[in-house]
Design goal:
Helix 6 runs antiparallel to helix 7, helix 7 runs antiparallel to helix 8 and helix 8 crosses helix 10. The protein is built from ten helices and nine strands. With 389 residues, the protein is an alpha+beta fold.
């Protein structure tokens, strides 16, 4: 049996160091996450602080950032880490990407020297947990019309509003909060013990159950000017953070798809019907061939974007949108197809496929729905803005 990504010898496109980092994260996920994640998912509980401390020791938190205890890894190295984490579970990858690519990146990119020194070393070590408060109950894909408001009150700011579906919020020490002010969208690094700040765990999720999701309430939260991110000016600041985080999703979704395909291949090789393994039937092999091709294409796309980012220092938003749109869409299609190969066993928690499929339903939606990414790409191709039309 050939592993799906071995079909085209894609390992030869990676450096020794890149393969070493991938293999390290794969071992960590295998030792620390895989034996427990089905139970975490069943109970809708995950030991965020324990995982963060372990990931911090390995340099996985904010690993693509520089300074302040961050590893300064390449984009491809970070992507490979995301792939291995999400092969274990999308929620665990979300913990890492929200911590590093949203909360830490916002402070690293837009914060003051004092804010960086206060928060980033502890966050890189996994001693402090961060979250990123942009999405609201009534404003998901349209953050420009967010309801959260910030107004000046003497030398301070008063922030009022609410955020929804905020990963890590119930356990966070610092929340990056975005609000509309008279001068436009502004951001704050808010200690979560600030009076008026509360975070409530979102319950009854059927997806990303091995992840802590919260609803944040901001009841006249008084903040000093020193809490404002001084370099964040306008909506482009939080949107740039989303572009940063979407890069990890491009890789992470491949991990979930690969794990589904690995599981289905092993199952089909041992499951017998009509006197032989179901892997020997033409229709099953056709499914495997199509899924393997999409997985390889997704990997090549992710690797191309990673190399571009490492070479040029960044990616254009439409390039990231193309990666997220394609790879998540194909990953969820692979998960659903693999479920059919396992038949009834495909819905059992003894196998990871339905868990991955359920998780990918959220990944398909968060940090930009498929429709939003289609419009980003469409605008680039046509030069016409179709948002809201």
């Amino acid at each position: 049996m050939t592993a799906p990504l071995d079909l085209l010898d894609l390992d030869t496109l990676l450096t020794d160091e890149e393969r070493d980092i991938r293999d390290l994260v794969r071992r960590v996920a295998g030792d620390r996450v895989r034996p427990h994640v089905a139970d975490w998912y069943e109970r809708a509980e995950v030991p965020v602080r324990e995982l963060a401390a372990e990931f911090g020791k390995l340099g996985l938190l904010g690993m693509h950032l520089t300074g302040y205890g961050c590893a300064g890894a390449s984009a491809v190295q970070y992507g490979l880490a995301c792939m291995e984490l999400e092969a274990a579970d999308s929620g665990v990858r979300s913990l890492v990407s929200v911590q590093g690519s949203l909360a830490m990146y916002a402070i690293w990119k837009y914060g003051s020297a004092e804010q960086k020194e206060r928060w980033l070393p502890g966050m890189a070590a996994g001693e402090l947990i961060g979250c990123f408060g942009l999405t609201e109950p009534d404003h998901g894909s349209d953050p420009a019309n967010m309801s959260t408001r910030a107004r000046r009150d003497g030398a301070d700011w008063i922030v009022t509003g609410g955020k929804m579906w905020i990963t890590n919020a119930p356990v966070a020490d610092v929340a990056v909060i975005w609000a509309r002010a008279e001068e436009g969208v502004v951001g704050f690094a808010v200690p979560t013990d600030t009076p008026g700040f509360t975070a409530r765990e979102v319950r009854n999720k059927l997806s990303l159950r091995a992840s802590s999701s919260g609803e944040i309430s901001l009841d006249d939260v008084r903040l000093p000017e020193s809490a404002r991110l001084p370099e964040a000016r306008g909506l482009k600041a939080p949107l740039s953070c989303l572009t940063e985080a979407r890069f990890g999703i491009i890789w992470g979704a491949l991990g979930a798809a690969r794990d589904c395909l690995d599981t289905a291949l092993a199952y089909a090789g041992s499951r017998e019907q009509f006197g032989r393994p179901i892997a020997g039937f033409q229709l099953t092999q056709a499914k495997f061939a199509d899924m393997a091709l999409e997985l390889q294409k997704g990997f090549l796309l992710a690797l191309h974007l990673g190399r571009l980012r490492d070479r040029d220092g960044g990616l254009r938003p439409e390039q990231v949108s193309a990666g997220k749109l394609n790879n998540v869409r194909e990953a969820i299609a692979i998960a659903r197809q693999c479920r059919t190969i396992l038949g009834g066993n495909g819905i059992s928690g003894e196998y990871p496929i339905m868990r991955h499929a359920n998780n990918l339903e959220s990944v398909l939606t968060y940090e930009g729905t498929s429709e939003i990414h289609q419009l980003v790409i469409g605008q680039k191709l046509t030069g016409l803005n179709a948002f809201g039309g």
